[in-house]
Amino acid sequence: MKKSISIYTDGGCHGNPGPGAWGTVVIDGxxxxxxxxxxxxxxxxxxxxxxxxxxxxxxxxxxPDAEIRVFIDSQYVKKGITEWILLWKSRNxxxxxxxxxxxxxxxxxxxxxxxxxxxxxSWVKGHSGVEFNEICDELCQKEIAALSH
Length: 149
Known about the structure:
Shape: globular
Strand content: 25-35%
Structural class: alpha/beta
Strand order of the largest sheet: 3-2-1-4-5
Largest sheet: 5 strands, mixed
Helix content: 40-55%
Oligomer: single chain
Radius of gyration: 15 Å
Order of helices and strands: EEEHEHHEH
């Protein structure tokens, strides 16, 4: 039986742009790894993407052969990595309106990780009592508070 892990991610900002942070919880059996970080001036979408990148980077290093289920409250990231990215790449990283895809650097990094791993993406409603999503939000809020002092 293949090893299976669950990952929860969240990102956020106070102001957009403004101080922002990301948080993730990687669940491997009974073990939980909590990771977080922040930036003084960023956007909400960049932090959502960074959370997914940091989580998958951790998974690639520690359990690259695992089946990974990512639970994310960002439709932007979920739809971007599961639907839109194929079109963006076929259009040389341009949107349907022929403008450059925003956050292209992060999308390319996420695409590389997603392609190297066995990932299933699932959307969860944010701020709805999903335990590990709430923990990710708390990690973000602590990082933003630390940046604001």
